Every structure is written in structure tokens, then in C-alpha cells.
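Sat 14:20. Reprocessing the chain from the morning session after the first attempt stalled halfway. Input below, unchanged.
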Amino acid sequence: MVINLFSKNIKICSFFDLKSSFLKHYLIDSEEFEEIIYVKKYNNVSKFDKLRKVIYVNENDNPYQNLIYALREFYAVEHKEHLLLHASCISKNNNDAILFIGPPSSGKTTILRKALKMGYYYISEDLVFIKDNYCFLSPPFKVLEIDKFTKKAKIEKIYFINFRYGSKFVKVELNIEEKKKYLFESLFNTKALTEQFDSFKNLLKIQAYYVMYSNCEDLLYNL
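Finished this time. C-alpha cells:
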């Protein structure tokens, strides 16, 4: 199978069935490709070889998840066609997008799962592609039930989230300097700023909030 991701045509050679995974949305008809990725069965702990572009997957692990993590390591840091933010992202009406940015264990995936059950559209689970003030569909890193998704949406709001067990719900609008700090800290491909600095400046114009919460429903009902 040949997919287009990270602005590259990538041929994936595998005995696993990956055509039925979320990658089916990135399949292309062209047989022309720039890289070959091998996904192989492996008896020990799953791992990947960045130099040789080989992913070794234990038979008890999910090959799709291992492939997506490997693709991020292989290509995301050097990617310059978009800004890549470590974030989850939903669309409430298949148009306007909402970003949730936060450190590991801050609840980005949990919020996303709940939002999908509430009827929101999926855009990104872990790594979101951004250009100008639009975000683009990104494959999920976790196994999710996705009924509705949006391929492109204008970013309406950004939430920098902080999960605190037992805390009250707090929502504070951020000034431009605070937005700069949080956005830069969540930027996966800092090298892209040389070509996408206007996209970064556009993000600073978007309404953004710092949120502390203990219940993701409180957050979603106060978007």
C-alpha cells in the first residue's frame, strides 16, 4: 500500500492488514513513492529501526499503533509543510475546530473519546497538522471508535489543559505572551518555523484559555 503522509509518498510493506485501519484515508492511487517502510512480525518487544525504516511488531501488539509512532519518529521532526502540535482536536460542526494542548497525562485522549461520544467530529488524537489558521486530519495513535471526522477545519479556540484530581473547574483567558510560551512548548517540529512562521503568528490571534479540571465533562460543557 502507498500512503501520503508528512508530505511524502510512503510505500508500506507488511503481512499485517493495514488497509482496513485509519490509514485507508491516506491511501493514494499512485505507485510512485519516496520511501519504503517494512512492518515485520517479531518475537520480542516491539521496536523500530529509524535508519533502515523497519518496524518490528510483537504478535500481541497493535501493528497500526506501532507504525504510526514510527512514522512520527521517522518524519515529524523534519516536516516543514505544516506546524505539528502535540494536541488533540475536534470539530463541533464539521467546520470550526477546537484544540486541546497539554503535557502527557493531561487528558487529551480522554477528552477526545468523550467528545466523540457527544457527537463531535474527529480531527486529531495526538499530533495535529496546522497551516495558516487551519488544521488537518491526522491519524490517531490510540485505537478509537471514530464515526465522524473532519479533513480540514478553521481553528476557533485553543485550550491549554491541566488535569488535577479533585480540583474545581478553572478557565482563564491567556494573553499573547502566555500563548507564545504554551504553543512553542507543544510544537513538535520547531524547524518548521522557518517556513511556517506566519502560521505560528496566526495561532497567536486565536482565542486561547488555560483550563484546570478534574472532570472532562465540565470542560466540554464549557467550551
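The chain has a mean pLDDT of 94.
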